[in-house]
Design brief:
A five-stranded mixed beta sheet has the order 7-6-10-8-9, covered by helices on one side. A three-stranded antiparallel beta sheet has the order 2-1-5, sandwiched between helices. By secondary structure, the protein is an alpha+beta fold. The chain is built from eight helices and ten strands. The chain is elongated and about 95 Å long. The N and C termini lie far apart (58 Å). The protein has helices at residues 15-18, 37-43, 46-53, 56-60, 63-69, 97-108, 144-150, 207-233, and strands at residues 27-33, 71-72, 78-81, 85-88, 113-118, 122-127, 133-136, 158-169, 172-178, 198-203.
Length: 234
């Protein structure tokens, strides 16, 4: 962000615009604890797992664990929980789901404490980054800069003025181009990531030239060494 000055306030989009909206098919981690031990065992089976294995949290931080132990939002947009029944959550911001479930829990349970997290918040980052791959996020907001940091940053050949974010849509794929050399990128929709986004860091136009130059340099060095050896043999 070469245009940023010292002590400058960088404009950004509001959370209400950038925050992810829960959709059918999303998988949520739900923990509800109360004064009732039986209820706790019903809503928190991982507590028993922890006593046996000590790694209950890890069961939710893998795709297999999320699928097996998380709660999936059904086609009607409902989160179905024991005792509480169907809770409409689709169409609401990710950060508000915990409050919604808390209201339902307060109707049936005494002094209940609710925790809800989105488990399928993953992004795929490829191209000119040091560690391309699939990365998971457990915060309500997630930016391209954070994704790049997870991938250990961009390579020396990255073109940071042309980073593409591809977002799945009901009718196709939406492509958004970001220029990270400008602070205006904070005002772009694609700067704030959503689950299942793809980030492609394009290579610089001079990458092939630089790679070829290195190869030519090695060839010339090898040839020079060979001629020197031949000269000594003579």
């Amino acid at each position: 962000m070469k245009d940023v000055q010292n002590n400058q306030m960088i404009k950004a989009l509001a959370d209400s615009i950038t925050e992810y909206i829960i959709e059918p098919g999303d998988i949520l981690y739900v923990s509800i604890k109360s004064m009732n031990a039986e209820v706790n065992a019903l809503f928190n089976p991982e507590s028993n797992m922890e006593n046996n294995s000590g790694n209950s949290f890890q069961r939710f931080t893998t795709p297999q664990g999320a699928y097996l132990y998380g709660y999936e939002v059904d086609d009607k947009g409902n989160l179905t929980l024991p005792i509480l029944g169907d809770i409409p959550v689709a169409g609401h911001p990710n950060s508000s789901i915990e409050q919604i479930v808390q209201k339902y829990a307060d109707e049936y349970l005494k002094e209940a404490i609710v925790k809800v997290k989105l488990l399928n918040y993953k992004v795929t980052i490829t191209g000119e980054v040091k560690n391309p791959g699939v990365y998971y996020n457990y915060n309500n907001n997630f930016t391209v800069l954070e994704a790049l940091a997870m991938a250990n940053g961009n390579t020396d050949y990255a073109n940071i003025t042309n980073i593409m974010v591809i977002r799945p849509q009901p009718n196709g794929q939406k492509a958004m181009i970001l220029d990270l050399s400008s602070s205006d990128s904070w005002l772009k929709e694609g700067f704030y990531l959503h689950p299942n986004d793809y980030i492609f860091v394009e290579p610089d136009n001079h990458k092939n030239f630089q790679l070829n130059a290195q190869a030519y340099s090695m060839i010339i060095s090898s040839a020079s060494l060979l001629l020197a050896v031949i000269g000594l043999l003579k």
